[in-house]
Design a protein that fits this description.
1 helix, globular, mainly beta
């Protein structure tokens, strides 16, 4: 009986290790002529959805069955003004949100398999700002000087 219990526990541990989530090890951002390229390094092939939201403008990346390294940071640049992560609703993945300074379009996104001598899968997302209107940074209206205002009695 004890031997069967030991085998069952061992099998569960091995199965759990084999099903380990994709660990996002690094996020890099590179400058391109008309925008930026975001590259994520992961331990497994990415299963993802990517889309844009507005008011405020954001790039959202939902990655199924994933974890993100605590060391992962994203630097602000000419397009990205902030970055945060959260869990997907099912708890088995991560949502990455990039706050955008300007309007952008997703030009393309693709997965690269590990190259010889490397173990990381890569997910690349190209964002373009070419031909798009910039977001207004201030909506405050300037008031007329006091001497030009009409008096209301």
């Amino acid at each position: 009986m004890l031997k069967k219990l030991f085998l069952a526990v061992t099998f569960c541990l091995i199965a759990n290790i084999a099903w380990a989530a994709n660990v996002i090890k690094d996020i890099r951002i590179g400058q391109q002529q008309d925008g930026i390229r975001i590259v994520l390094d992961g331990t497994q092939k990415f299963q993802y959805d990517v889309f844009l939201l507005d008011s405020p403008n954001r790039l959202v990346l939902d990655i199924k069955d994933s974890q993100i390294s605590d060391k992962t940071k994203v630097s602000n640049n000419q397009i990205i003004s902030g970055f945060r992560t959260g869990n997907l609703a099912d708890g088995k993945g991560k949502r990455l949100v990039f706050n955008l300074k300007n309007n952008a379009t997703i030009k393309k996104n693709f997965i690269l398999e590990p190259q010889k001598g490397q173990s990381n899968w890569r997910l690349a997302i190209d964002l373009s700002t070419q031909g798009l209107k910039a977001i207004k940074t201030s909506t405050a209206q300037t008031k007329a000087p006091y001497k030009n205002r009409k008096k209301i009695i």
